[in-house]
Specification:
The protein is of the alpha/beta class. The protein has 9 helices and 13 strands. About 30% of the residues lie in helices and about 30% in strands. It has a 9-stranded mixed sheet with strand order 5-4-1-8-9-10-11-12-13, with helices on both faces. It has a 4-stranded mixed sheet with strand order 3-2-6-7. It catalyses: D-ribose + ATP = D-ribose 5-phosphate + ADP + H(+).
């Protein structure tokens, strides 16, 4: 079977991460943090995850003409994600994410979008062949136009939550949200869009619906949580890859939950993204829930 061909239209950031024993509340300063720097951005995370899970991937994105761009794109380039559609802009800096991660693995994230906010529809190719994955860390009008220009399967991760036109939801073959995003948009509205709907439930796994009815549910394996950054992006990429490969709905959801679980066992968004062989081994070992 040939590898799925996926184009990802989305954000590229450089993640500046501080690990500390607990996350600060408003007005609190937490000392003793340990700093690290990783490539990130929901778009780039999903592109790299799809590539590591076996897809041929092209990235459509914008970065700044600055020193952070090379670091932000480094792992995409190293793993063979196509970057011909990644534009270097002089009008904006490369996106930056400021991330605090607690010892329990929970995180707080503030994003300065920079060049991601300058990713306008005119920078898209006229036609996007094959499948598309998109999120909402770039302008909504660019996401809408990318979906309109796609000739194949459209996976839409409605994160971070934002107002989107109903026409965009109806164009998606797959919509992925977490529980908070599902509440923001309203489950009835998402189910009425007509495609597959996946809702992630954190440690409880995920559920998949079609035509308003649940068709599959999966729970992740038990793992030691180190950093949850990028887990949702891993899920989106894994579910899309599995569905494009023709896996059953139940198997695809199990695959996505297993991949997402593996991603939380290491620090950083992109450094933690799992390889296909490791996900397959975890599933083959029977260490997954249902």
């Amino acid at each position: 079977m040939s590898a799925p061909r996926i184009t990802v239209a989305g954000s590229v950031n450089l993640d500046l991460v501080a690990r500390c024993d607990h996350l600060p509340v408003a007005g609190e300063t937490v000392l003793g943090g340990v700093f690290a720097q990783h490539p990130g951005g929901k778009g780039a995370n999903q592109a790299l995850a799809a590539r590591r899970l076996g897809a041929e991937v092209e990235m459509l994105a914008c970065v700044g003409s600055d020193a952070n761009a090379e670091a932000a794109l480094s792992l995409l380039q190293a793993d063979g994600v196509g970057l011909a559609g990644c534009h270097s802009l002089t009008c904006a800096a490369t996106g930056i994410a400021l991330i605090a991660v607690s010892d329990s693995g929970e995180n707080q994230i503030v994003v300065a979008p920079g060049a991601n906010a300058a990713f306008t529809p005119d920078l898209l190719p006229d036609i996007i062949d094959g499948a598309l994955i998109a999120q909402l860390e770039i302008p909504i009008e660019t996401v809408f136009e990318a979906a309109a220009r796609c000739t194949g399967f459209v996976a839409l991760n409605l994160a971070p939550a934002a107002d989107v036109p109903g026409e965009l939801l109806q164009r998606a073959h797959l919509i992925v949200v977490n529980e908070g995003e599902a509440a923001f948009y309203g489950l009835d509205r998402l189910k009425a869009a007509g495609g597959l709907l996946a809702v992630t439930l954190g440690a409880a796994g995920a559920v998949l619906c079609r035509d308003g009815a649940e068709i599959a549910r999966a729970a992740p394996p038990d793992v030691t949580v180190v950093d949850t950054t990028g887990a949702g992006d891993t899920f989106v990429a894994a579910l899309t890859v599995a569905l494009l490969e023709g896996q059953t709905d139940a198997d695809a959801l199990t695959f996505a939950c297993a991949a997402s679980a593996l991603s939380v066992t290491r620090e950083g968004a992109q450094p933690s993204l799992p390889r296909r062989k490791d996900v397959d081994a975890l599933i083959a070992a029977g260490n997954t829930g249902a």
